[in-house]
Amino acid sequence: MRMRWLRMAVPLGIAALLLTVTGITYAVEQPDPTDADFLSPASEAPIGGRALADALRAEGVDVHRTTSTLDAIGAAYEGDATLFVPVPGVSHPDYLRMLESLPASTRIVLVDPPARTLDTIAAPVAATGRRWAAKATEPGCALDEARRAGTAAALRQRYEADGERCYDAGLVRTRWSAAELVVIGANEPFRNDRAGEHGNRALAVGLLATKSTVVWLDLHELEEPPAQPVDPPGSEEPERESSEDPSGEGVVGGDPGSGESGEGRSGNGSGQSEGDGDNGAAPPSEGRNPLWDAFPDWFWAILVQLALAALVVAVWRARRLGPPVSEPLPATVRGAETVLGRGRLYRRAKARGPTADILREAARQRTAALLRLEPDDDGEALASAIAAHTGRPRDDVDDLLYGASPETDEELVALAADLDALAHEVGAPPVRTDEGEQR
Amino acid sequence: MLTGRTAALLALSTVTLPLWPSPWWGVVVLTAAVLALAAVDTALAAPLRAVRLSRDGARAVRLGETATVTLGVHNDSPRVLRAQVRDSWVPSAGAPSRVHRVLVEPHASAALETTLTPTRRGDRPAVRVSLRSYGPMGLAFRQRAGRPATPAWRLRVLPRFDSRRFLPEKTARLRTLEGAQVTRGRGQGTEFDALREYVIGDDVRSIDWRASARRSDVLVRTWRPERDRRVVCVLDTGRTSAVRVGDEPRLDASIDAALLLAALASRAGDQVDLLAVDTVVRATVSGGRHVLLPRLVNALAPLQPSLVETDFELVVGEVLRRERKRALVVLFTALEPGALGEGLLPVLPRLAARHRVIVAAVHDPLLERMAEPSGDPYLSAAAIRTLGERDRVRSALTRNGVTVLDAPLDVFPSRLCDAYLTLKQAGRL
C-alpha cells in the first residue's frame, strides 16, 4: 500500500518541484517594471537605459527626461518629438487617453503596454498572443528603422493593428488620430545589458531618433488620478466607472483587486445565485455573459441539480463490492521452448553448414541402423552399402551424405528432403531407434 | 454511501424546479431533502457489526469436479438485513463472479451457496467476503472493508489421477505374476510361497518330489513374487518440472504416474514412500499400506513447481537417510543435460550402490514431431540436436547402472508400471 502511494507521489513530486523551480527562476529573471532603474535614462544598472540615452545623445538627439505623464505629454505636444513610455502600465489611463490628441509630428513609443491599458485608452492596437520570453527574429517589414537594425529581440507580445507589423507582429506602427504610434512588446532592445545583442541597439536608437527630441517618461510608480476629470474630445461616458477604480488599470501584469471590486459592486442578479459557488454564477456586471440571460433561471437550476445527481452517480459507482482478487500464477514453461529458440538462432545466424551436418549425421545413423551396420563404420562402407541397396550411383550417395555445405536456404531445404527420401528408400518407414527399443 | 436510486431521485425531482418561486432555493431544498432521506436510510440499515459469517461444505475436490461451499449469513441485529454479498475466491478456484442478494430477518440466518469448479490443482483459498447492507428504501448502504470478518476456508484440489484407467490391467498382470488368477501354470514369482497338493492341470515341472516323498501325496511348490519390498517415489519439483508437457506441467504428469505406481505397489504388498524435493524437501509420505493412497493424494495436491535448480545432493542424502534397506528408487525428473549432468551424475553412484534406481522422465511428443525432416530444416536440426543430448544423458545414466524410462505423456504411467512389474518378475527389486 505504501509502495503504491510512493509510486504515485515521487514522479508527481518531482514534476511539481521542476515546475516550481522553473517558475521561480523565471520570475527572478524578469525585470520588474516598477524598479526605479528599469529603462531609466540615468541608470547604469543592467535593466537601465543609460546606454540608450547616451547613444541617442551621440546621434544628436535631445533627451528630455520627465517623471510625470502630464509633463511628458505637454513636452511632446510641441511637435517634432518622440514620446518614449517604457512603463505605460503605471501611467493613469486618463492621461494616456490624451495621447490621441498629439500632433502628427510626434511619435509615441510604448513598451509592452498591458492589454487592459490598450483597451481602456481605446488605442488602435490590440494585444494578441504572448510569448514566454523575447525572441530574436527577422524584421520582415518595410519599416526603415527595423530594416536597418536587422534581426533583433523584439518579439514578446504580438499586436494587431492597421499599419506596419514587424518582427512577426512583435512591433507595430500605426497612426492614432494624427500622432504616430509605435508599440513594441519586448523591453530587451532598450536595456543596458541586452542592447549589444543582435540589432537591438540599432533598433532602439532607430525607433527613438527620428525626431529631434526624445521625451523620456521615467515613471515607475502608480500615478495619482487627475484632480478633475480631464476630457479628451469624444469619449466621456465610459470612463466614469474606471476613474472610480484607481487600482484597476494600475499595476502591470494583472491585479486581483480589480476583479474583486468588480464583483463586490455588482449587486444585481447575484441574489439568487447564492449557495452554489461551484458554477461561477455571480457575473461581474460589466462582463456579464449574454448567454446567462438567454434562459430562465430554472433552466440553470435544473442543470445544477442534474450535475449534483451525476456526482451522486459517480460516488455510487466509485465504491466497489470488494477489490479484485490476485493470485500468484504457477511457473510454467512451454515444452519445446528451448528447441524453438535454438531453431530460430540457427536461422538468424544462417548456420546452414552446422544444420546440414546435423541433418546428415542423423541420416547416416538412421540408414546405418536400417542396414544393420555399425554406426562407427567409416563412410566408405556406408555409402557403398546404401548404393548397393538402393541402386543409386555411388557418387550421388557420397555427395548427399558427405558433400559440401549448402549455400542458400533453398539448397538446405532440398538437402533435407533428399536425405529423407534416401532414408525412405533404404528401408521401411523410418523409425527412431530408441522408440523401437521401448516397444 | 449513496446508491443509484438516490441519484435517480435527485434527477427526477428536477422537473419540479420550474414551479418553485426561486429555482435556486429549490435546488438547495430538494438536494437537502434527498440527502436527509439517504441519511435516514443509512441509519435504518442493519449494522455490519451485528452480521456474522460462517462457512461449511466441501474441503477437498478432485480436479475437474465441482464442489459446493456454503456461506452462512447470520443477522444478530433487530433490523432486517438487506444485503449484497460477494464471496471472492482466487480465480483458479472457478467460483462464479456473481453477487448474491439476500434478505435476512432479525436474528435469523441465510445460506448462500458457492459452486466451485477449480481449474488448477492445489490449495484454493477463499479470499474475502464483501457485504453491503442496504437501508429499507435502498437509497444508501453501509459497507466497510473487513467487516464482517471473512471466515477462512481452503479447498484442496486433488490431482485428477487420469491414469487410474491403467490400474485394472496392471493389477491383472500382477495377479498373473502371483499365480493367483491363472491356476494353470506355475506362478511366475521368484519367492517360494508354500507347498500344496497337486491338482490336475498343474504344471508337472513344479512338483516337489522331495516333499512328495516325505508325505504320501503329490505336492507342488507354489511361488509368489517378492513381497514387502520398498518403493520410493522421488519427485523433482525444480525448474524442469515447470515445463509444460501437453497441457499441464511435467510435475502433474509425474504425480499422476507416481500415484499409479503407488497404487499398484501397495496392492503388490510393497511399501511405498514418497519424497518431493527441489532445494528443500517439499513433501514426504512414508510407510502405511492400506490408507496410503488418500494420504499420498493429499500430500501431492499442493505441490507446485518452483523455478530453482534441484539439489540432487539433498535428494540422494534424504533417500539414503530414510531407506536403510535396499529399495526401488523412482526418480521423476527430466532428461536434461544441464540439470542431470551437473546435479545428479556426480552423486548418482552413491545412490545406485545402495538401491535400484529408475529415472523416469516424461517427454513432449512435440519434440519428435519437430525432428521429422519435413518442414523447417533449422528447426528439425535443433530438435535432432536436443534429442541427441537426451540420448547422451540417457546413456550416461545407464552406464551408472540406472534404468532410464523416457516415454511420451500418454503412455508414461503405463510404461512405468510395466518397468516395475518387469523388475518384480525378475526378482530384482
UniProtKB/TrEMBL annotation, chain A:
Pfam families documented for this protein: DUF4350
Entries under InterPro entries matching the protein: DUF4350 (IPR025646)
Record domain DUF4350: where: 42-208
Chain spans, region Disordered: 223-288
Entry superkingdom: Bacteria
Keyword Signal: yes
UniProtKB keywords: Signal
Extent of the signal sequence: 1-27
Gly residues: bias regions: 250-274
The keyword Iron is annotated on this UniProt entry: no
Biased composition (Acidic residues): 234-247
Protein name: DUF4350 domain-containing protein
From TrEMBL, chain B:
InterPro entries xrefs: DUF58
Pfam families linked to this entry: DUF58
Keywords: Lipoprotein
Residues in DUF58 domain copies: 195-366
Protein's recorded name: Lipoprotein
Organism: Phytohabitans aurantiacus
